[in-house]
Design goal:
The chain has 147 residues and is an alpha/beta fold. It has 3 helices and 5 strands. This is Tol-Pal system protein TolR.
């Protein structure tokens, strides 16, 4: 007999990873996400206004309603002097201005004091709306040092 011993055939170790189950799981998750993604839109349909954002170049002078810190109303028409008015006078005078001018071209601004409560500014908006004004803009002053 010879001195060589034969070993029985052993299986070689496999160094591969079976990825088939992982691919199956990934495809199932992909299908689940594709089906549920359209259902996850948690938004509200809003009809946003269209704007060209150009500066206002008008031929008519705007009507400016000012609200001071104490909640008093002041009316300035045609770049004239500002006059103190009550809520009833404001509604009557602005209503007369609306009847004389085109509603589309009439510009009405509210200038509220920064220290004033918000309620008098909202009251001015309600008064102007009841007087027939369709569009009201708010005047603000940029902070110093900002462009």
């Amino acid at each position: 007999m010879s001195g060589t011993i034969r070993r029985p055939n052993k299986r070689k170790l496999k160094a591969d990873i079976n990825v088939v189950p992982y691919i199956d799981v990934m495809l199932v998750l992909l299908i689940i996400f594709m089906v549920t993604a359209p259902l996850l839109t948690l938004g509200v349909d809003v009809d946003l206004p269209k704007s060209n954002a150009k500066s206002s170049n008008t031929k008519t002078d705007p009507v400016v309603v000012q609200v001071d810190e104490a909640g008093n109303f002041f009316l300035t028409v045609k770049a004239g002097n500002k006059e103190a008015v009550t809520a009833q006078d404001l509604a009557a005078k602005v209503g007369a201005i609306v009847k004389q001018n085109d509603k589309e071209k009439l510009q009405v601004y509210i200038a509220g004091d920064g220290r004033a409560n918000y309620q008098p500014v909202m009251d001015a908006m309600n008064i102007l709306q009841s007087a027939g004004v369709e569009k009201v803009s708010l005047i603000s002053q940029p902070e110093k040092g900002r462009k």
